[in-house]
UniProtKB/TrEMBL annotation:
<dbReference type="GO" id="GO:0003677">
    <property type="term" value="F:DNA binding"/>
</dbReference>
<keyword id="KW-0413">Isomerase</keyword>
<dbReference type="GO" id="GO:0006364">
    <property type="term" value="P:rRNA processing"/>
</dbReference>
<dbReference type="InterPro" id="IPR043323">
    <property type="entry name" value="PIN4"/>
</dbReference>
<dbReference type="GO" id="GO:0003755">
    <property type="term" value="F:peptidyl-prolyl cis-trans isomerase activity"/>
</dbReference>
<keyword id="KW-0697">Rotamase</keyword>
<protein>
    <recommendedName>
        <fullName>peptidylprolyl isomerase</fullName>
        <ecNumber>5.2.1.8</ecNumber>
    </recommendedName>
</protein>
Amino acid sequence: GWLSNGDKVPPAEFEKLAAEYSECPSG
């Protein structure tokens, strides 16, 4: 995934990041 840099993103922040990264799916 795109959180392989540490995966220390809180649920709240994760939703925001997921929204911004929604157009860039982890492939």
